[in-house]
Amino acid sequence: MELMFLILGKTICSSLSAVIYLTTDPPTSQQKAIRPISLISENDDDPYWKNHIEKYFNHPEEEEFTNLTYPEYFKNYEITITQLTSTKFKFRHLKLHDEQLFFYQKLLLELPCKIEEELFGKFLTYQEHWLFHHPEFNETLQQVTHDYIHS
Prior knowledge:
This protein is mainly alpha-helical and 151 residues long. The protein contains 8 helices and 2 strands.
């Protein structure tokens, strides 16, 4: 049924609320989509569509953007052409056993940053960096990991 509405260009429902899916995969796991040839100029060195993370990292240098986290940036600065809408954000559901993907997502959602390297900080892994900001979870994480391995 939904397919018929989409083919005919009809609206299934009218809502003042929008849902935006924000990717939280690290660069090594991100998929890229190539732009149509008509949108790529001769001087363009990047034929791919920019994803939300790249757009966030390219935010303006002004002070009002400095402390914005990834979701705050899109929540506060989405441009709509028609009418003011309420926007909800969806993220990929990750669990602790997703390891570095899980901690990358946590850091991306919690820390304001301008470049990818800031999510690593001075640490070797995303997990170490996240636990540095949340030491209260260190013992819990060790217990959960221990229980998971021995079950």
